[in-house]
Please model this.
Amino acid sequence: MKIKSVRTRVFRWTGETVAPQANFCTNAADALYIRGDAMGSFRFHEWLVCEIETDDGLVGIGNAALAPRLVKNAIDLYMAPLVIGEDPWDYAHLWEKMYRRTLAWGRKGIGMTAISAVDIAIWDLLGKSVGQPVFKLLGGRTKEKIPVYASKLYSDDIDRMQAEAQRYVDQGFEMMKMRFGWGPKDGTAGMRENIRRVEAVREVIGYDRDLMLECYMGWNLDYARRMIPKLERFEPRWLEEPVIADDMHGYAELNAMGIPISGGEHEFTLFGFRQMLDIGAVSYIQYDTNRVGGITAAQKINALAEACQVPVVPHAGQMHNYHLTMASPNCPMSEFFPVHDVEIGNELFYYIFEGDPEPDNGFIDLSDSEPGLGLSLSRRHLDDFEILE
Ligand code: MG
Model:
């Protein structure tokens, strides 16, 4: 089996969107408020689809959500020529070849996201070529089914957040994650707004369910130091990305304070995670398979994290993450983005692909017989996309 072609397409959503609340989630650009450059509403409505076809007619599907048009160019110009004509079963070599040939510019960010999309498509191919789901190639079934946490609860009016939390409880979720809407620019009054919302969600879900808290890098070290003691009484399972991804020592300091810190969705490769683990930066690793180097890199990080006894909970829903979670004893759960109208952009993959499992009472399961990752391109919403070839 040889790789014959690599096709990339950017799916740009042109259909209806829902506008989120003004303070729906803090982000890294909020720190620029002194110059008036806070980012405001951070949303993205494009997604990259990468299809790899073999000489015997199989097609593997990978995808990427980060800067899709740049990633498309990186794949078309640099990655595709490196894998065409090769045997996809030589995936470890192909990964190294893409990594080392693009190392000068590609180690992190766009380059590694391009490698990730190609690698995910290759793994989908491997599963299809032997008629097995990908998780069977990665280690098989380590759990009967995967516990998932509902991940939305954007910062909003308290009534609406409480109603949303109640909906997840009613649907059987034992875990959920909420976003903070206020950061350093909003002062002490903003701190109180954040705390009121954590209190309000706890009021609905009680203390026998897990609550995760998300900052999306919208705080700074000083603000996080002040917030953590105020949040401890709400017993969060973790506090996610309190500071920007490059401030690893900041993570390590906060992780020693009293609430487990999580992060890693903006970190790359085995080496990046070795650095995080070496200094105790996080209590939970959340690589994004779409960016970290695909399934080939994620498998290595899973092993490294297991040796450090730091659990891995991949960032985002999506099939590549579910297969890795199913196959690793060190992945206790998966994130799940509830299906809803197009808003932030997280939910776009539901409109592009078919095959993502529905949660049932807080768990999802994967088919033992569906080959590959189990995804196919959907035709249902094609009219709502502009497709850039
Ligand atoms: Mg996150």
